[in-house]
Amino acid sequence: QVQLMESGGGSVQAGGSLRLSCLTSGYNNRPNSMAWYRQAPGKEREGIGCILTAGGKTYSADSVKDRFTISQDNAKNTLYLQMNTLKPEDTAMYYCAAGYGCKASGGKLGEIAVVSVWGQGTQVTVSS
Prior knowledge:
The chain is mainly beta. Helices cover 0% and strands 55% of the residues.
């Protein structure tokens, strides 16, 4: 059974940093792509960053690309999201997802083209 398990969330003051991790299990082969999403209360889920696992090419949303970095360690079956200079508006539940392809245009940078599995999420709270 394919599973994604996020960790690393928590509470931090504005200006601080966090690194989220997403451990994948149950795959015979690495998924074609993985991504981070977030959803704040009352808002739609938005893609933050997507990575093609085979070559490591990344696509990041304009809203966070200067502060957030998506990366992977294939040997550890782990996806990461390094978040720097956090702001209160970054407060949200953060999810990792796996699937096929990354959207490369149309205002949807940071999203997977076809999601096949979601993690349960990890909460990030940024106080001012």
